[in-house]
Write a structure and sequence with these properties.
Elements: E1 2-4, H1 5-18, H2 23-28, H3 32-39, E2 47-49, H4 50-66, H5 69-84, H6 88-95, H7 98-109, E3 113-114, E4 117-124, E5 127-134, H8 140-156, E6 163-168, E7 177-182
Antiparallel strand pairs: 1-2, 1-3, 4-5, 5-7, 6-7
């Protein structure tokens, strides 16, 4: 399974920006293969192996900076959304409805992870249910990262009281991963 370089770069940028004094400690704590990717130029449009380029570095930053892998993954997802949805995209996010943004997630999702499929299972003006129906190597860390990304995208669109629950997960043996999302 692969992840887009822009997502990998956001992990590195997250640590550099939020924990600059500990960046080298984090980088040196990674396995050689992960460190080699993060020490090299990361090309936004290139594809990288998901486990070594994203999962392992995210787990390590979760352990080091949050004492919680879930929190670390969630926060890197939020940071990634903030970086991706700035400038002209920020204006677009603010000008459209939250439902529209989340419905567009299925098109955005496949530009970050390959091969994968995400679909809208149900939606109304204050909630949406999304299903990941194809993700050959399910991973809880990546699910949390995706949830954090969606949360920040909704915040940027003006939503309040955002609740995101992963109600089904391929990592737990379900056929799909389901995100139940609501806001006010």
């Amino acid at each position: 399974m692969e992840i887009k370089g822009s997502a990998v770069k956001s992990i590195k940028d997250f640590v550099e920006k939020k924990y600059p004094n500990d960046f080298n400690n984090w980088l040196n704590s990674l396995p050689d293969e992960s460190r080699a990717i993060l020490n090299s130029p990361i090309y936004a449009t290139s594809w990288y192996p998901m486990e070594v380029a994203a999962v392992t570095p995210t787990r390590k930053l979760g352990e080091m900076f949050f004492k919680d892998v879930k929190k670390g993954a969630w926060e890197t997802g939020r940071f990634s959304a903030e970086m991706a949805l700035r400038g002209v995209y920020k204006i677009f996010v603010k000008a459209t409805s939250p439902s529209y943004i989340i419905k567009r997630a299925s098109k955005i999702f496949v530009t970050y992870y390959s091969p994968t499929e995400l679909m809208v299972a149900n939606s109304d003006s204050k909630s949406v249910v999304l299903h990941i129906t194809k993700f050959p190597v399910p991973n809880k860390t990546i699910e949390y990262r995706i949830a954090g990304w969606m949360e920040k995208a909704l915040e940027l669109s003006g939503c309040k009281n955002i609740k995101i629950r992963i109600t089904k997960s391929m990592t737990m043996g379900n056929d799909i991963t389901e995100f139940s999302i609501s806001w006010s």
